[in-house]
Amino acid sequence: MNVLGLFVPGRSVLHRLPAGAKLLGLLALVTVLVVLDDHRAGLVATPAAALACLAAYPASGLGLRRPLRLLLPLLPFLAVIALFQTLTGDPRAAFRVCLLLVAAVLAAGLVTFTTRVSAMLDLFERLARPLAPLGVRPDRVALVLALTVRSVPMVAAAWQESRDACAARGLPAWPHLTVVPVIVGMIRTAEAMGEAMTARGVD
Amino acid sequence: MIELRDVSHAYGDRPVLRGISLDLTEHRIGIIGANGSGKSSLARTLNGLVVPDSGTVRVDGRDTRRDPRAARRRVGFVFSDASTQILMPTVAEDVALGLRRAGLTADETRTRVDAVLDRHGLLDHRDHPAHLLSGGQKQMLALASVLVTKPDVLVCDEPTTLLDMHNARVIERTLRSLPQRLVLLTHQLDMLQGFDRVLVMDGGRVVFDGAPDEATAHYTALMDARAASMEPSNQGERA
Ligand SMILES: Nc1ncnc2c1ncn2[C@@H]1O[C@H](COP(=O)(O)OP(=O)(O)O)[C@@H](O)[C@H]1O
Ligand SMILES: [Mg+2]
Predict the structure, then answer these.
(1) Pick the CATH number of B2-238 from 3.40.50.300, 3.30.565.10, 3.40.140.100, 3.10.150.10
(2) Chain A contacts of B131, Cβ < 8 Å?
(3) How far is the C-alpha of B147 from the C-alpha of B119, rounded, in Å?
(4) What is the pTM of this model?
(5) Does the CB of B145 have a partner CB in chain A at under 8 Å?
(6) Which terminus of chain B has a lower count of CB atoms within 10 Å, N or C?
(7) Is B215 exposed, middle or buried (0-12, 13-18, 19+ CB in 10 A)?
(8) Per-residue pLDDT reduced to its tens digit, B33-68
């Protein structure tokens, strides 16, 4: 449960690239791999991309544990896909599709590990700017996104607290016991955060 | 200077502030009183978070009813629960949030954020997820995030209530070292030593206004009398 701990400070090339460039690069890479997937070139390009993405981790000071931890939850899906494709008589497709997924996940991980949430938010703020004439306030969009990201660990903590409270009284964490306190807690928290935003002049 | 004139406020039909008039000019002012006596409500009027039902609050001559933003720029506010004040994912981002509208360049913002983080012992944590800080560090971050905007006055509503003694002391020392004027709401009476003025609140009124020692003596006597009246032997008399 460390959604926000994803950014890893560093000074690598990837760290210094602007967020927009990285997101565009990610989009381009995945698009190219998907397009090539039908061609023979894909048989070379996809494994090469996956390897390159993997190599980029240690090269960016991210080590090898992070990419492996990213890929671990993917393994069961890869196994199912590989099995299915092999059974339908296309082991080559199994190879390509699995490596394509690996490359995409590794590339997305590279972007998240090397990009600050605030850089991402600035990007969204800029992207939302053309909507300003429609009454959308770009700074609000960015703030709402930031607060959403910020709320994830708070909701998780509220759940944990509620489960602990059940456990302390020898009860299992039945949903009907935990839902109400969690929601009440979140509303309280939301009110307090709203007040803090007003006090800090960011409302 | 903050001026309150005949300030009254109610939530629904429950009065929480009753006709309060004050000129707050001293460097360090403490506010004490039992839970529910109206301390937080009074504090919230000082920066326009609460606009009173009647009466006026002026910050440097500006009415908080007409211009609450001006009041908020001058009066920073720190709450008890740091976790609800931290609005951004990482430490430096949270401090920078208050500067978003200041029209600074990215470099200027960074310089100012780092200076504040350094002053409050958080520079090593600048890129850490804010929710993983310790309770004391979170409160320090909340304080830093307010101080970076350079308010003239800092209002702190029980800033150490949720902290252990060590962290409470650290926050207390920090508050004492600030050049800003300070309005401190607290139950930790020893924090008020050396303050210029302490207000005691009870039932929405300021019932004592004076030096710290006399104020805490007054408050202690008031609470002792009230606790005594709650003892079983006195219940019959009350009813
Ligand atoms: N937003 C609110 N809505 C309704 N009642 C409130 C609200 N805030 C405070 N109160 C009530 O007002 C009274 C004074 O509260 P408060 O100013 O927080 O006192 P203190 O900070 O001294 O504990 C309490 O009885 C409290 O329950
Ligand atoms: Mg209070």
Answers:
(1) 3.40.50.300
(2) 4, 150, 153-154, 157
(3) 11
(4) 0.75
(5) yes
(6) C
(7) buried
(8) 999 999 999 999 999 999 999 999 999 999 999 998
